């Protein structure tokens, strides 16, 4: 799978062209926060990078207008805006589960919540095992909601 900038970039004031399900079928091998090291890992990450099984990555960041920007990542490098690089690090957010047996979460679909101007405020990456939810605002927040068992009411 090739993640092209025009497929997944969301810039303030302009909605991303294409469908919201551009990750469907991808395997996610890691979900990493991008943290400003002097602040430690206690708070929310400045960005979240989804590392894909094919070696590419997708970076979700909060724009200054509280919208969500979705761009190709640079894994294993830090994003270009992490200056000086020695003060930044990738680390798994503590509230997320470990990678499932088999080594990857399989994406079955995505959904975006947009504002009245069509800008992305929230991205939901649906996997067989559950949903990753990334929300923009004053800071970026990520959570994981496990899928219900098939026989659950």
Would you write up a description of this structure?
The chain is an all-beta fold. It is built from one helix and nine strands, in the order αβββββββββ. It has one helix at 5-8, and strands spanning 27-36, 47-52, 57-62, 68-72, 88-91, 105-114, 120-127, 130-135, 141-146. Strands 1, 2, 3, 4, 5, 6, 7, 8 and 9 form a nine-stranded antiparallel sheet that branches. A hairpin with a 5-residue loop joins strand 8 and strand 9 (141-146). The radius of gyration is 15 Å and the shape is globular.
Task: Specify the structural class.
Answer: mainly beta
Straight-line N-to-C gap: 35 Å
Estimated radius of gyration: 15 Å
Strand content: 35-45%
Low-confidence stretches: 1-19
Question: Which terms would index this structure?
Answer:
40% strand, disordered N terminus, 153 residues, 9-stranded antiparallel beta sheet, mainly beta, 1 helix
